């Protein structure tokens, strides 16, 4: 088992492709998922602005979004991806399905973090005359910050996994490299190095996430 | 403070007298089939320290939610500073009620904000610029004895210090009315006493009206000038604290006053029986009397996290004590 030295530039390129797929999707997913999570929290029965009908719709959307296997989701979204990016192949195109998968995933995590903010605190804010948007921006989100950072960490790591799946259908990245060289060509050395890079990325993200969460947590 | 009768509020539809900081007239609030407050009338004199006492389930929490604007009564009038809030739009009403300072049992501080940022929060909601609101918050923290604690997070403060931050937050907007809801119930006795004396001092210095909602008569005794006793959603007794405590008229008041003042002596020929009841209300007293038992002492207590009343009964010897207690409460214990 020897490593072909020409694999290093490929590995570097694949790493960049993976990051290019994952980071924009994670940021977009965090933004939209947080909004959806807040919306779920507000409209749920007993929330600040209960709306049972809307809540049931949002809740169903999140459940459906989360139950789609990612590989199926990618295929289903090809028309949307073509519409937005112009093509359904390549790392940039993968950002679309990755973001769509990220939003409901994150919304659920955000909803959980927001639920940990004690009801007494939001009621106190309401009694002090806070508007609903003030409660969201000045109470709920800042109080849930450690949980939100944790959710972001989990999201990035999940997307690293999803991006490998995206690689299987033409998105490039580390997953693609591992499958093409490692699996199809029986190149165990390249496969091992590629998986090691993925593993290091996951470790790095988890370490950074834990650090950020710890520093942001004053509870 | 007047003892409320149903007639007074029906016959006086005019604005509340200037002497009232807060006046509730004929307030009813129901949750489903349960009536939390029924035809509830209360007059809180301006500049008083008024205790509102009752057992759990008496309607205290509902009252606090109405006074803090978190709930709206089904009927009645709520006058704050001479203005009937219930005729205002919800937005206007919230704006008025935001001027009432609230102190909570569990402090309800924001864990991710420092003491200073917590105190500044109501001003932030009101749109006061950062420099100004932080200066005001700093001053208010100093008034509750927390200079030097500005940058501490709630997790770095003791229970008493957290409640001081809570009080500073309630005061920072300069309210005329301060509402303390079981503000010392989560604190040890020594800390409770210091918080009560702080509230008393602030009430006097700022000449505001203080309402202390509690289930502990000790709190009423040590910190209030007036008291209103709630039972089953109704006002059963009210007046100046000294007068009410010296001569309680209602069984609930006497029960809340507890074992320090035996209600009656044991008569010759009676045996003493102790039992625990969920509440000592008029209906229970009636049933006890019908069965031949006489309450000689009662003391509120907490058993297994639930509010209960320990009751000592004088039972005539010729009555079968076992039968009497069996009809009321299976777990009654004989102590004498």
Automatic annotation (TrEMBL), chain A:
Protein name: ABC transporter permease
Keywords: Cell membrane, Membrane, Transmembrane, Transmembrane helix, Transport
Topological relation to the membrane, as annotated: Multi-pass membrane protein
Residue ranges of domain ABC transmembrane type-1 in the record: 15-206
Family: Belongs to the binding-protein-dependent transport system permease family.
Organism (species): Deinococcus piscis
Xref: InterPro entries: AA_ABC_Transporter_Permease, MetI-like, MetI-like_sf
SUPFAM superfamilies, sorted: MetI-like
Record has Chaperone as a keyword: no
Localization in the cell: Cell membrane
Annotated PROSITE patterns: ABC_TM1 (PS50928)
Membrane-spanning segments: 20-42, 54-78, 84-107, 148-169, 189-209
UniProtKB/TrEMBL annotation, chain B:
Swiss-Prot/TrEMBL keywords: Amino-acid transport, ATP-binding, Cell membrane, Membrane, Nucleotide-binding, Translocase, Transport
InterPro entries: AAA+_ATPase, ABC_transporter-like_ATP-bd, ABC_transporter-like_CS, MetN_ABC_transporter-like, P-loop_NTPase
MF (Gene Ontology): ATP binding
SMART domains named among the record's database cross-references: AAA
Keyword Transport attributed: yes
Domain ABC transporter intervals: 22-257
PANTHER family xref list: AMINO ACID IMPORT ATP-BINDING PROTEIN, METHIONINE IMPORT ATP-BINDING PROTEIN METN
Record's protein name: ABC transporter ATP-binding protein
Gene source species: Deinococcus piscis
